Amino acid sequence: MKTYNDTRLLHGGDYNPEQWLAHPEILKKDFELMDKAHVNTVTVGIFSWSTLEPEEGVYHFEWLDKVFEAMHKRNGRVILATPSGGRPQWLSEKYPEVNRTNILGQKHHHGFRHNHCYTSPIYRKKVQQINRQLAERYGNHPALLMWHISNEYSGECYCDFCAEKWRDWVKDKYQTLDAVNDAWWMTFWSNSYSSWSQVVPPSPLGEHKVHGMDLDWKRFVTDQTIDFFLNEIEPIREITPNLPVTTNFMAEGHDQQDFIPLEGLDYSRFAEVIDIVSWDSYPDWHNPYEPLHLTAMKSAYIHDQYRSLKKQPFLVMESTPSYVNWHAYNKAKKPGMHILSGMQQLAHGSDSTLYFQWRQSLGNSEKFHGAVVGHDNSEKNRVFQEVATYGKRLDTLAAIKGTPKEAKVAILFDWESNWALKRGGGFGRPTRRYIQTLQENYRFFWERDIAVDILTPNQDFSDYALVIAPMLYLMQEDTMKELSEYVKKGGILIGSYFTGMVNENDQLHLGEWPQTLQTIFGLLPQELETLYPGEHNQILYQGKSYQTKDYCGIVQETTGKVIATYSQDFYVNTPALVENRLGQGTAYYLAARTDLDFLEVFYQPMIEKLALQQEIVKDTQPKVSIQSRTDGQHNYYFLMNFSEERQQLELLQPLLDLETNQTLTGLLTFAPYEVKILKKEN
Ligand code: GLA
Ligand code: ZN
């Protein structure tokens, strides 16, 4: 594993001096203000290509040299970005092939940013050239900390280069047209291919896409994005083999009042080719549709998922010190919220709080986006002050840098299942909500301060006490075998409706559910009943009734023991929850979607039996989140009040306040949004 050599938590972020080269007084002030804000790291060059190379082959680095020097002088570090996220006008004009083509086949003009063709040979060459220049010039600079490759890779291209790549990809995977026709079930609607030339990208827009093709297309988009990335880092690996590379991942869902990992790219595959995972975290704090602690829960989920990609500390590459500009309504963080949200990043394993952006621009599309330094250009500004206070606190927390988190509970998430579930017709389309369902399960543990790793089925889950894998719709044979081994060796596994429904081509199994799954869960799924919004059934569990929603799977138990049944409809009295002992372990199949009240009674005895509860405060409560990191010798606990009210918690043992060095005992009081970081010697 390649890592960077700095012992501090990184504080700083996206810095765009290229917008201010005509204002030397601003540049000078920037560094003075950075010192005051306890900034130790800047990320530069992300959108600097037209300044770095204003004409083809003509380079200007002096301004960037100055940034390196200024940072070095103050013992600060530079994260250097490659500029491929936004290319110069001359490049788009001279080589139109670099511009992206949309799904309707329309070639874009230069546009704004994030809109290149990732296959274009010229673009790949030009990107390598500028990256080589940067690596040669700054590769040995002592201030250089790591590489930030491009920016927020996403999207797809439908140009002829990409179409040809796609055809090669399909050929390579399937070898024969018969195999493609089989895998994608192409006799349906008379789609069968009779020649390779017919293999073109999915089109047009709309719901009717060949399911197998669409799934493979998404795999291809991930592959081609990674391939572009690998092309970018060739000169970088050659010239700076010891420096780590990262690229900033994203989240999405804001338009649906959700906050979930990016769905379009399989980040578990991307994580394999980068050294450090980083992401851009923009939770919708203070939104009108949920209490603050639920926003915190969703944000925690994504932190945990991205940390789990490598099971290593990660970086928050971007976050806003106040508000964003791309919502319909862009709400500022209230006083205290910035520090709380930053500490939450650390609590879940981040070694940084970096911002978009250091300084607000005067014009163009992000002029109203929050920044450390606002248009008032003043350190008296509330946001600046809060950032500075936070930076100062970070200085006292350096001990946690690099410390991992430990979890005994794993939730399995699979990008491919998500793609396939979202594509498929049938059942309730708006209610699939795979990731949101995982978050609902995660919520139970988060509210009880129990750490969770979120893994893909390809990661090793054999050592976890509990593996929660609802809606794992698309399942490879290997995964079934590993789940079976896991249970046999003593694990507890949770499956559900949709689990193991299709194979890797999104095709159902003829006849019965795969034998391995039958053996694990001790049942045979029969039907999947869809409920309308507002329609419910009830399940009877340990003498009490719980409401179901969206989906009620109808199953026939075999070796499994029925521990809950439906109380209504044509499947009344049939199993809703089946428990199956296999080897040393137990698998549960929850056939219906329920509310949290049921998950609570279902999971509570498990966490007690497995002794998963936290041990530092008397009664946990949802609004004060406790997360910990450990280096083996010490545990570091973050106690975070995600509410507008004062809260109290009773410590079960004396712990040291890491920032004040005072020993705390008994009742602790938390002001709204307050965070305490406590330390325990092991
Ligand atoms: C993304 C981008 C940044 C900036 C921010 C605004 O994360 O990477 O360049 O546009 O969004 O929130
Ligand atoms: Zn293309």
Automatic annotation (TrEMBL):
- Which InterPro entries does UniProt cross-reference here? Beta_galactosidase_C, Beta_galactosidase_Trimer, Class_I_gatase-like, GH, Glyco_hydro_42, Glyco_hydro_42_N, Glyco_hydro_b
Going by the record, the broad EC class of this enzyme is: hydrolase
Q: Which reaction does it catalyse?
A: Hydrolysis of terminal non-reducing beta-D-galactose residues in beta-D-galactosides
Using the record's annotation, list all stretches that form the Glycoside hydrolase family 42 N-terminal domain: 14-396
Q: Which SUPFAM superfamilies match?
A: (Trans)glycosidases, Class I glutamine amidotransferase-like
State its Enzyme Commission number(s). Answer: 3.2.1.23
In this chain the Beta-galactosidase trimerisation domain maps to 407-612
Q: Which UniProt keywords apply?
A: Glycosidase, Hydrolase
Superkingdom of the source?
Answer: Bacteria
Using the record's annotation, list all stretches that form the Beta-galactosidase C-terminal domain: 623-680
What PANTHER family has UniProt attached to this entry? BETA-GALACTOSIDASE GANA
Family classification: Belongs to the glycosyl hydrolase 42 family.
The name under which this protein is listed is: Beta-galactosidase
Species this chain originates from: Candidatus Enterococcus mangumiae
Q: Give the organism's phylogenetic lineage.
A: Bacteria, Bacillati, Bacillota, Bacilli, Lactobacillales
